[in-house]
Each structure stands twice: as structure tokens, then as C-alpha cells.
Specification:
Elements lengths: L5 E7 H11 L4 H11 L12 E7 L2 E6 L4 E6 L11 E7 L9 H11 L4 E3 L5 E4 L2 E11 L6
Antiparallel strand pairs: 1-4, 2-3, 2-5, 3-4, 5-8, 6-8, 7-8
Helix pairs in contact: 2-3
Length: 148
């Protein structure tokens, strides 16, 4: 997304997991990020590969990086690829390599199982976000929210 964004707090992922356990209810929102934890990365690219899952809800982007144990939260501005009042699930990679993790398949299966509406978005092959351009693997427009 070109233009400014506002950096908000970084939340340790373990904290969110503890809240979920205390509530005794699995949240789709956190299950999505758990898929990222399970993803296998090719050893050839381990140091240079950057894999991120982003959930955009009501103008807030919740960003989980494969190699980090926290969730970054930023306020995003709408642009030609992301509309202001829509919610999205975005998978980004910085290395164009065949992937064996089937993250998108797992995400779609979860959304179908939880009866959460979504549509695959026609998108460019890249997305400008966090001051760099990313290989845009998939973008889903959805009605997911934080409390689901």
C-alpha cells in the first residue's frame, strides 16, 4: 500500500494464544496465523525467505511473519488493491519459489468449515506494503472479523 501507515503495538503471539485458551474457544483469526507457524520453508531460502500472513479488518492490518513470534498491527489506508470497508486475508512471499505448504488450501478449508464467506480477488502479482513490494500469492476478500 503506497502512502503512510501508522505503526501500532506489537503483540506477542503467545499472549493471544493464552487469551484464546482462557476463553476456551478457538478463534478463526488466530487459527489462520497458526497455519503460518506450521508452514515448511525450503532450506535453500531459509535465511532470505520472508513469508507473511496479513488479515485486514476495518482498516487494521494484523501481520504475522513466519520467522517472528509476535503479531504486528498497523493502520492501513485504502488503495486500488484494498478497499476501505472490506476485510482481507493476504499471503505474501518475497521469494518466487514453488511452495509445498498449501497454506491457501488450509485457509480456504478453514473458512469453508466455519462458514465464513470469501471471494478470491483478481490481483496484480505484487502488492506494495511496509515500504516494499511483495510477491502477492493470494488475496481473499472475506467477512471474517476479530471475534470470530
Amino acid at each position: 500500500m503506497k502512502g503512510p501507515y501508522d505503526q501500532l503495538p506489537t503483540v506477542p503471539f503467545k499472549t493471544l494464544d493464552m487469551i484464546q485458551k482462557a476463553n476456551k474457544e478457538k478463534l478463526v483469526f488466530l487459527e489462520l496465523f497458526n497455519f503460518l507457524e506450521e508452514a515448511k520453508m525450503p532450506s535453500d531460502y531459509m535465511e532470505e525467505m520472508d513469508l507473511r500472513l496479513i488479515v485486514v479488518i476495518e482498516g487494521m492490518a494484523y501481520i504475522k511473519k513466519k520467522t517472528e513470534d509476535s503479531l504486528h498491527i498497523i493502520k492501513v489506508r485504502s488503495n486500488e488493491q484494498l478497499k476501505e470497508n472490506a476485510h482481507y486475508i493476504i499471503l505474501l512471499r518475497n521469494v518466487e519459489e514453488e511452495q509445498e505448504d498449501n497454506l491457501v488450501g488450509k485457509i480456504l478449508l478453514l473458512l469453508n468449515r466455519k462458514v465464513i464467506n470469501y471471494e478470491l480477488q483478481d490481483s496484480k502479482n505484487s502488492l506494495y506494503l511496509l515500504n516494499r513490494t511483495w510477491k502477492l500469492e493470494h488475496i481473499l476478500k472475506t467477512d471474517l472479523n476479530v471475534s470470530k
